[in-house]
Amino acid sequence: MLIQNINMFRINIYGGDTSWTVYQLEDTVQDMRVDILPSAGGILNAWWVGATNIIDGYTDREDFVQRVHAGFRSAKLLPFVCRLNNATYRWQQQEYRLDKFLLNGSALHGIVYDQDFAVVAAQQDESGCSVELEYRYAGEHPGYPFPFICKIRYALSADGKLEIATWLANPESAVSALPIVDGWHPYFALGGEADHWWLKITTDQMMEYDDALIPTGRYLRDRTFTEGALIGDTKLDNGFLLSGTLGPFCKLKNPETGHTVTFLRQLNYPFLQLYIPDHRKSIAVENLSGAPDAFNNGIGLTVLKPGEQKEFLVEIQATVKP
After folding, report:
1. How many whole angstroms separate alpha carbon 133 and alpha carbon 262?
2. 249-258: b or e for each residue (b if 16 or more CB lie within 10 Å)?
3. Angle at Cα 129 formed by Cα 128 and Cα 131, nearest 5°?
4. Which position among 36, 99, 136, 155 has the lowest Cβ density within 10 Å, counted as fewest Cβ atoms?
5. Contact assessment for residue 55 and residue 187, using Cβ atoms and an 8 Å cutoff
């Protein structure tokens, strides 16, 4: 199905059934298409620039169900990001165990990564197109009995720019404040292996992790990619503290193909996690509002009182060599 074409931007909707409906944002002039999957955790599943897809996503619903836990590709990370040490935390003098998915004793990547988001708006005009998703969590997991509302807006505009905005709200009817951290987990694939890609991040402040990849609270000075460098055989599963909201704060490029992803700006995402899987054909570039294990260490933790809301945003630009 095609929503009315307005100039260069349009929204396409396709898929076999409601369990795998794709909302595609398209720039017909730049030949750019962004695929959003509301029923698979509201994820960004593909970003086509011409014939090149720069997102390592899923082929269909079965692929998603079978492999979402093997990397959590493009997952929305809520209400915590990365790891929760020993899958436990204390909040308001009570201990909770949040154990939807465990690895080496720690909980990973929150609880909404496989949930069904509702499409609440789709808009297009001469300047761009967007789709807005919503997920209402009722507090059903005993390890996180705090209802919240999550809204995500994907907006494609001129010059290959994709803005991803998230709003988190504690309902006015809530009986208590809630702890929450927001993030997402996209894997970018620029062709070939990451060893041959060039990376730049505008910070030299790397979080120190222990052997369980839990922050110690200290920062190490690391300038490996501050001025930009080939990744080579570097193994990455590291977190960094960004120096500001304006960018570009991260740039990833394949010099052989010219494919480039530039993180232009962010709002309330002061942490950046980088991870290269063993196959080294993609790299996760994760914008995070708080650090791993923030429920325990408090680093970047957001606390929302009843009726409060907070916005998080990242703007990314993609280009490929003609």
Report:
1. 24
2. bbbbbbeeee
3. 150
4. 136
5. yes
Other residues' Cβ atoms within 10 Å of the Cβ of residue 2: 11
Closest CA to 114 of 181, 185, 47: 185
Question: What is the rounded CA–CA span in Å between residue 202 and residue 218?
Answer: 19
Give me the phi and psi of 105, to 5 degrees please.
90, -15
Which whole-number Å values give the CA distances from 277 to 187, 193, 235, 274, 283, in the listed order?
A: 9, 11, 9, 10, 7
- Give 181-204 pLDDT, tens digit per residue: 999 999 999 999 999 999 999 999
Cis ω before 142 (30° cut-off from 0): no
Q: What is the pLDDT of residues 207-245, one digit of tens each?
A: 999 999 999 999 999 999 999 999 999 999 999 999 866
Query: Is the domain defined by 9-190+265-319 classed in CATH 2.70.98.10?
Result: yes
Kindly report the pTM of this predicted structure.
0.94
User: Which position has the token pair 């002061």?
Assistant: 270
Alpha-carbon distance of 152 to 133, in angstroms, equals 5
Q: Tokens 């929503």: give the residue.
A: 3
Measuring CA to CA, which residue among 29, 35, 30 is closest to residue 11? 35
**Which amino acid, 238?**
N
> What are the C-alpha distances in Å from 114 to residues 65, 68, 100?
8, 8, 11
Percent of residues in the chain assigned helix, strand, coil, to nearest 5: 10, 50, 45
C-alpha to C-alpha distance for 30 and 157, rounded to whole angstroms: 10
Peptide bond between residue 248 and the one before it cis (omega within 30 degrees of 0): yes
Q: 68-100: per-residue pLDDT in tens?
A: 999 999 999 999 999 999 999 999 999 999 999
Kindly indicate the confidence band of residue 274, based on its pLDDT and cuts at 50, 70 and 90. Answer: very high
